[in-house]
TrEMBL record:
Keywords: Lignin biosynthesis, Metal-binding, NADP, Oxidoreductase, Zinc
Domain of life, per lineage: Eukaryota
Catalysed reaction equations from the record: (E)-cinnamyl alcohol + NADP(+) = (E)-cinnamaldehyde + NADPH + H(+)
GO biological process, one term: lignin biosynthetic process
Example GO molecular function: zinc ion binding
Enzyme Commission number: 1.1.1.195
Cross-referenced SMART domains: PKS_ER (SM00829)
Required cofactor(s): Zn(2+)
Quaternary state and interactors: Homodimer.
Matching Pfam families: ADH_N, ADH_zinc_N
Name of the featured protein: cinnamyl-alcohol dehydrogenase
Domain Enoyl reductase (ER): 15-347
Protein family: Belongs to the zinc-containing alcohol dehydrogenase family.
Length: 357
């Protein structure tokens, strides 16, 4: 590769495992022929940003500029870009490139491509590290850019780019999107609360399974869940045994699977999207007796991310957010750690990010 021209960028980076985010200057590549350059307006804070900043999974390279629920407005497009123009409102999720020729890319599931490149904290083709959306602007190949429907507010639409597609993708793939089905959603955080909204839009009955009794009223009256179970209340859990066709588990910490498997009907599916730091214990007998399945799922392909976004536009689905300024990000991370967020923090990047010194 020849000399890569660069443009200055700035944002917030974690510099070590303390995960404290502080000002950081770096550079981004020039807008290539197939690239789109955009000014970042808003960026959601996913629990994965926190886990990566702390290097919980041992995958982190510092400095890390997190952020993969990024929306903004295009400022420049490359000469061979065909789908976007300057001024378009667009977004990027956690995936910024892939090989385009392997089995999963051919399946429109680039997220499982062995050469998939993450938007933050990964090595790009030119050997530079990718830096995410806690920053002033982004450069991304047009094939990995998502269009945001006109009717959706950009700040509340941002979390759909990760939280939204991560729960939408397995619901579709595993056939948990059929009207009348009973779906459980475990953990009412960023992913969980949009799972409730999509599952309701698909016409299913939704039960939230939560550790936080205080979320019950909102789950039912604001988010539209049909029922709410407090996971440590054994009576409540017992009454709901063998009633669910599928469960989307979004819990970020170690937790027991046995009670969840008990909630599943014959042939029910437990979909793991939450990513606890340590392995979970898998009780096998309830799987065998009920022909039940436990599966994992990661974000979603680009085509289905756009499909999810368009469905969100049609049903007016967005995240319930707390819009915060850049100087609140470290406090937000502490609150996220304690499951104290209703239900997604989104950073007002364009209005509150000051150039790094
Ligand atoms: P979040 O907003 O922090 O929500 C997680 C929820 O899990 C909490 O609100 C809480 O809900 C519940 N929870 C937390 N600690 C718990 C504990 N010790 N025991 C039981 N429940 C607990 O996080 P998020 O952004 O939605 O992300 C959720 C997980 O998904 C994270 O692990 C993240 O890394 C992962 N993730 C995976 C993908 C993927 O591609 N598969 C994509 C995005 C995120 P209650 O208060 O209702 O109990
Ligand atoms: Zn995420």
């Amino acid at each position: 590769m020849g000399k890569v021209l660069e443009k200055e960028a700035y944002g917030l980076a974690a510099k070590d495992e303390s995960a404290v985010l502080s000002p950081f200057r770096f550079s981004r590549r020039e807008t290539g022929e197939k690239d789109v350059r955009f000014k970042v307006l808003f960026c959601g804070i996913c629990h994965t940003d926190l886990s990566m900043a702390k290097n919980l999974w041992g995958l982190t390279t510092y400095p890390l500029v997190p952020g993969h629920e990024i929306v903004g407005v295009i400022t420049e497009v490359g000469a061979k870009v065909t789908k976007f123009n300057a001024g378009d409102k667009v977004g990027v999720g956690y995936m910024s490139s892939s090989c385009r020729s392997c089995e999963s890319c051919s399946d429109d599931q680039e997220n499982y491509c062995p050469k998939m490149i993450l938007t933050s904290g990964a090595k790009y083709y030119d050997d530079t590290m990718t830096h995410g959306g806690y920053s002033d602007h982004m450069v991304c190949e047009e094939d990995y850019i998502i269009r945001i429907p006109e009717n959706l507010p950009l700040d509340a639409a941002a979390p759909l780019l990760c939280a939204g597609v991560t729960v939408y993708s397995p619901m579709k793939y595993h056939g948990l999107d059929k009207p009348g089905m009973h779906i459980g959603v475990v953990g009412l955080g960023g992913l969980g609360h949009v799972a409730v909204k999509f599952a309701k839009a698909m016409g299913t009955k939704v039960t939230v399974i939560s550790t936080s009794e205080s979320k019950k009223d909102e789950a039912i009256n604001r988010l539209g869940a049909d029922a709410f179970l407090v996971s440590r209340d054994q009576e409540q859990m017992k009454d709901a045994m063998e009633t669910m066709d599928g469960i989307i588990d979004t819990v970020s910490a170690t937790h027991p699977l046995l009670p969840l498997l008990g909630l599943l009907r014959y042939k029910g599916k437990l979909v793991m999207v939450g990513a606890p730091e340590k392995p979970l214990e898998l009780p096998v007998m309830p799987l065998i007796f009920g022909r039940k399945m436990v599966v994992g799922s990661m974000i979603g392909g680009i085509k289905e991310t756009q499909e999810m976004m368009d469905l969100a536009g049609k049903h007016n689905i967005t995240a319930d957010i707390e819009l915060i300024s850049v100087d609140y990000v470290n406090t937000a991370m502490e609150r996220l750690e304690k499951a104290d967020v209703r239900y997604r923090f989104v950073i007002d990047v364009a209005n509150t990010l000051e150039p790094a010194p």
